[in-house]
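Bumping my old thread because nobody answered last time. Still need a sequence for this structure:
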């Protein structure tokens, strides 16, 4: 069982590294959105997808190890959590697991905040694009400014509008 606990600690360290990397990529995404760097944004999103796939795999492995440990402790899988595991292990491992659990929770919160922030930036950008398109699609109030070919043979508008008589 000791070997499994050590494997779990090592795995959670990898998970923390993975989440830190994902958070870094989200921060890069924010910079791309703010700077309108769409090529870099596309690259960042691809890296995020890879990092997310890795994080999900690590989480899956963590769940497998913790399930195995809970079977050893004869604890119902429905009550399985890192908090419960910390309570069951001796202090040499429990303090390290508790520290890692707090780090994971902290990183998850930071990731959520950054994702929400990026989501708002994307919404703002989409709103700006929408307004720009609507503005460009509106008919010009003065038709002769649109296409000069339509004005041949017609009287030209006055060039000086505030001319006194």
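Sorry it took so long. Here it is:
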């Amino acid at each position: 069982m000791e070997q499994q606990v050590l494997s779990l600690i090592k795995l959670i360290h990898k998970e923390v590294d993975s989440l830190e990397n994902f958070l870094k990529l989200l921060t890069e995404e924010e910079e791309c959105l703010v700077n309108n760097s769409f090529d870099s944004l596309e690259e960042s999103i691809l890296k995020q997808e890879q990092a997310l796939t890795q994080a999900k795999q690590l989480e899956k492995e963590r769940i497998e190890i913790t399930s195995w440990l809970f079977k050893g402790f004869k604890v119902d899988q429905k009550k399985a959590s890192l908090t419960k595991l910390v309570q069951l292990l001796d202090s040499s491992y429990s303090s390290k697991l508790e520290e890692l659990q707090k780090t994971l929770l902290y990183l998850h919160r930071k990731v959520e905040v950054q994702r929400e922030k990026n989501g708002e930036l994307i919404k703002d950008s989409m709103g700006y694009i929408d307004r720009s398109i609507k503005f460009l699609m509106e008919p010009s109030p003065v038709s002769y400014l649109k296409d000069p070919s339509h004005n041949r043979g017609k009287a030209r508008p006055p060039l000086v509008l505030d001319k006194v008589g």
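The chain is about 75% helix and 0% strand. Let me know if any region looks off to you.
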